[in-house]
Amino acid sequence: MYSFSKVTNYLYLGDYNAATNLVLLQHHKITHILTVGDGMTPCNPEQFQWKSINIADLSSCDISQHFDECNDFIDKANREKGRVLVHCSNGVSRAPTITIAYLMYKKPCGFTQAFEFVKAKHPDTAPNSGFSAQLRQYQTSMNKSSKHDLTTGDACNCKLF
């Protein structure tokens, strides 16, 4: 069994079993795979563009240091008219955290709106407490660099996708 969800037209979220299911990946026309985990090796690396972020699912780990490079990788897939699967071991904490950060960056919207959007598409979504805190900090840093206050509901009226 695998966990696999379409978040946007070009962004998918899942677990390691989904990332190793060649038939599933080909059916959904996945071209890029972003692995967010420790010790997971790419399967079929010659068929996809891969990026791996080596990080454990511990609240003490700094996943936010990878937000920019992950956002760039996802944007690259979109620019190339590709589709990207973001996955971790179980599709629960690390990959959803990266997906939420990407939506916050792309739209922009706040943590709560991005979390709820991803959770509605991928019900297994449950970033650990440290990752959730880092996403809230990411929102704060985006507030400082933006004219929008992402902490209020009014700032997030944009339709995500």
Automatic annotation (TrEMBL):
- Gene3D superfamilies reported in the protein's UniProt record: Protein tyrosine phosphatase superfamily
Segments forming domain Tyrosine specific protein phosphatases: 71-123
The membrane-spanning stretches of this chain are: none
Under Pfam families, the record lists: DSPc
| GO CC annotation | cytoplasm
UniProt domain Tyrosine-protein phosphatase: residue ranges: 3-144
Q: Could you tell me which CDD domains the record lists for this protein?
A: DSP
Q: Which SMART domains match?
A: DSPc
Superkingdom in the source lineage: Eukaryota
Show the InterPro entries listed in the entry.
Answer: Dual-sp_phosphatase_cat-dom, Prot-tyrosine_phosphatase-like, Tyr_Pase_dom, TYR_PHOSPHATASE_DUAL_dom
Q: Single GO molecular-function term?
A: JUN kinase phosphatase activity
- This chain's protein is named Protein-tyrosine-phosphatase
